[in-house]
TrEMBL record:
Record's protein name: alanine racemase
Source organism: Novosphingobium marinum
Family, similarity comment: Belongs to the alanine racemase family.
Catalytic reaction(s) noted: L-alanine = D-alanine
GO terms for biological process, alphabetical: D-alanine biosynthetic process
PANTHER family: ALANINE RACEMASE, ALANINE RACEMASE, CATABOLIC-RELATED
Cofactor(s) required, per the database record: pyridoxal 5'-phosphate
Molecular function terms, GO-annotated: alanine racemase activity; pyridoxal phosphate binding
InterPro entries in UniProt: Ala_racemase (IPR000821), Ala_racemase/Decarboxylase_C (IPR009006), Ala_racemase_C (IPR011079), Ala_racemase_N (IPR001608), Ala_racemase_pyridoxalP-BS (IPR020622), PLP-binding_barrel (IPR029066)
Top-level taxon of the source organism: Bacteria
NCBIfam families tied to this protein: alr
Enzyme Commission number, as recorded: 5.1.1.1
UniProt keyword list: Isomerase, Pyridoxal phosphate
Protein residues bound to substrate: 133, 297
Amino acid sequence: MPDKPPATLRLRVDTGALAANWRALDALSGKAAAGAAVKADGYGLGVDLVVPALRDAGCRDFFVAHWSEVEPVADHVDPQSISVLHGPLGEEDVRYAHASGAKPVVNSVPQARRWLDAGGGPCDLMVDTGINRLGLPMAEIGDEAIGRLDIDLLMSHLASADEDIALNEAQCARWNEAKAALDWRRSSLANSAGIVLGQAFHGELTRPGLSLYGGIPRRELADRVRPVAMLECAIMQVRDIAPGEGVGYNSVFVAERPMRVATVALGYADGFLRAWTGKGSMTSNGRNLPILGRVSMDMTVVDIGNAADLREGDWLQVAYDLPEASAATGLSQYELLTLLGDRFDRAKR
Ligand SMILES: *Cc1c(COP(=O)(O)O)cnc(C)c1O
């Protein structure tokens, strides 16, 4: 096949801002080092852009969820610096861990036995201290198989680090109980929001994800974290519409006056969900261009009445400030990032 023509959707990743965010979170982690959650293709931004920038900033610990995510990360860093959060669920996972060098995160007694029976080696241990999702129940930390593990990171995960509730301290206390009961080299509890909860939550390693990529789960991070992801889309067509005419499926927007509108190549199949229908905007040179009507699978229409110079082929920026976009759509900041589809041309800014 010939070379592809240029994409009409761009996701620009500000790797300078990403590196600055990692440094800021590393500094906020005090004596602990900051690692990086790079699961789900670096929260949707692209592992090939995100991992080298984090590595060059000084990050030495990387977290993915699935075994299938190891190889693309290992293209850029030592496989032994990669932890696989879902752990060894079957014999093939264990074989893959040994062959690749990536560390399994053991989450249960059966996972521990599976790892040990195949020869074991350094691993991480996730203890569930109150999220009741994935991880060894506290009641099982005395199990003999757990006692035989060679634990690098002793981890737990906070359920509500973005809120000030008593569960945070309760989880921290149980994590300390687990630390007292087991042998381990490093300990880790805090995600992005948890870093702000203070030194007691830091251990030797923190595990930010969202805030590396510009997300702001707690107010305290607002002036420390810079935006990283920028979305741009090309105008495919410009048209004038008369009063009374509808725009898009089901005419959920109807013009009340003559309007000039532009159709851009961004739709819900790209992760720009119908939650944006009648909300949000795009911009061109600082001019605000409101979204009109329903978002389609591959297209969205915007009002370009205050930008009469715009033509087919011109690029618009999508207003995608994560806290504001989350408030407008009801989607979480995590969803707003990880939804972004593969029709975006991802590149460094
Ligand atoms: C995803 C994840 C993180 C990162 O959390 P953020 O809220 O994105 O900072 C940390 N630890 C574990 C176990 C995770 O699954």
